[in-house]
Amino acid sequence: MRPVDLATRSLALLALLFMTASPLAAEEEHNGETAPAIAAPDVEPMEFLRQAVTRGIARSAALTEQEGSLTLEVNGEAMRLASRAVLVEPGDEVRLRAVVRPPRGLSTRPESRTSLDDYRGLLRQTSISEVLWEAEPDDILLPVPDGSVVWRAGASGGGASYVSAQAAELRAQRGAGQIHSTGAELAAPAWSARAGVLLLSGVAFDRTGDGILHGQNVGIYPNERSGSAPRPVREHAHLYTPPGVFYRLDERTRDARILPHLTLGELMPAVFPDESEPEVRYVSISPRLLKFLEEFYAEWIAAGHDPRHVAVLRGFVSPTERLRLERRGVSLAEFSRFQYGDAVALVYDPRRTDEEERGAPPRMGDLTGDGEVTTEDAEVMAEIAKDTMDRIGMYGGLGIVESFQGPGPSEGTPYLHVDLRGWYTTFRE
Ligand SMILES: [Ca+2]
């Protein structure tokens, strides 16, 4: 189930942030210009807006400037993508704010409409406008006076929630002097936009415990400060601290889209695809990995490639899974970054746009166009990954690997290893 489906299927309308309660007072503040008086709708305002917005919503977010936009700010940082996951630590609060930029033509002073408050003030002249927040029925959104909302993660965590905002500008019918809640007199909103965010709620993990997390044997992390740890590990011990938060991968979260072209399940494929996958798996995801991938996709697209062609062979590997891999002849380093949630094995797989082959096990395709699949194809990906690291100043290991060890049907394919260990290093295997 895609997040957008989640939003439309099961979300409950929770918060109405503002209404144009006194349009005349607002008009006086704006150059003395007068606008048609807008009478209050004759149904309950929230229901009125819900009906109007629902009827008119045809497009999702990511509209052009010409068309206007609605951007979500998450804890003060603007989301550039129409869909993206945010990793939330147990008990944390997430502050969400909708920044509305209406399209040209709807505004008398578009340059001044850069904040919600400005927007609200100006809208009072000519229309009723609203930002509606939606969340899943069990979630709580707390309105904040400035128009933001606060979403609070449950103490136990482990879930995924989709919160969306939609904005609409509903213009009064000229000459009518009144807006009606139903019927032909109210056209679709003059403008509307929508944006959402997936909030993945983490579960705390205590490294000093027995390695069991909600019944799953994550395992014991190696001691990064031990004298027997490799020197680079000891010298950067803070980068090898075991993750304190895990995210639950299950039937419900597997298809959650954490980036526009990547679901949680695709980012974290089964470590043993030749066995039946556990119903629940706890995985570590570094926020740095999400940041890197978002930027990598941007570079990849800028280089003329299709974002749907990026596939992940390996994401998180727990210490327990690492030991099991070793028993099957697949050797990962004791301090492998796969255990810290910031490493991925990537391939370019053009079959992913093919409806029939999309579910096939990922394998490297011919990215160089020479008719062969070799490590050179991984090198093209590595160059884009290196450009990404340089641009955002986030470094780690880039490895060109000739043959994926598996296990599973992707065995033998060349791939690119990427991790974000904190310093730049390259290797070939
Ligand atoms: Ca090639």
Mind explaining what this structure looks like?
There is one protein chain. The chain is built from nine helices and 22 strands. The protein has 429 residues and is an alpha+beta fold. The chain has two domains: 3-199, no CATH class; 203-428, Muramoyl-pentapeptide Carboxypeptidase, domain 2 (2-Layer Sandwich). It has a five-stranded mixed sheet with strand order 1-6-9-10-4, covered by helices on one side. β2 and β3 (77-78) form a beta hairpin. α7 packs across α9 (375-392). It is globular, with a radius of gyration of 25 Å. The two termini are 38 Å apart. Mean pLDDT is 76; it is low at 1-65, 107-128 and 172-188.
Q: State the CATH topology of the largest domain.
A: Muramoyl-pentapeptide Carboxypeptidase, domain 2
General form: globular
How many domains, as an integer? Answer: 2
Number of strands: 22
Strand content: 25-35%
Radius of gyration, Cα only, in angstroms?
25 Å
Distance between the termini: 38 Å
**What is the architecture of the largest domain at the second tier of CATH?**
2-Layer Sandwich
Bound molecules: calcium ion
Number of helices in the DSSP assignment: 9
User: Mean pLDDT, as a whole number?
Assistant: 76
Order of the strands making up the biggest sheet = 1-6-9-10-4
CATH class identity of the largest domain? Alpha Beta
